[in-house]
């Protein structure tokens, strides 16, 4: 099977955005808007089980009835202010791409393998992150942006990956998804796609038994990734286009 497309998650996969990015931005938004709420590192890790920023806000408020109730406009306002603070953090250079992401994107472009994104991140957050790390023309690298609320249900439901498969008009057996969480893994395999997991700070202890491969990163020269295939084979090196082609060829 020929590699026809690669789908990337963003938060935790392309960049370690959660702990010192989105979490900090949420807390700044709560403070700016006058909500007596602060999400510490451990609590935010628990909240990541709820996929989607607005969903996470609603969930937390539902668990804390002592807080003033929120309507949908309040949720949107918090989320919008949080997005602004996140963009500010990115602009300050606080959040870079993970090891190997830029290199692999460059290789995929040179081999003309289509790449798309599957994430709940807003366009504003994605634009800030990738403009800072890939340049003003970052959108030229991606065929489709499956972001925000483009589908009505979030991971682990496979809707976002089925949507991307439909946009690309490709067989799921010819695609590789790169994810960092179990929810993302379940969404991807639920759509029939081989999944490469690069665990993030928050997801490193999750169950990835359905993954085609689990790797410490995508690797770079001098910063090799450690990987383990579903077959049990282990090794180290760089995750390149050839490596991804092998993941689809063994299916």
TrEMBL record:
SUPFAM superfamilies: HAD-like (SSF56784). It comes from the Bacteria. Its EC number is 3.1.3.-. It is an enzyme of class 3 (hydrolase). Keywords: Hydrolase. One of its GO terms (molecular function) is hydrolase activity. The keyword Oxidoreductase does not apply. PANTHER family: CBBY-LIKE PROTEIN (PTHR42896:SF2), XYLULOSE-1,5-BISPHOSPHATE (XUBP) PHOSPHATASE (PTHR42896). This is Phosphorylated carbohydrates phosphatase.
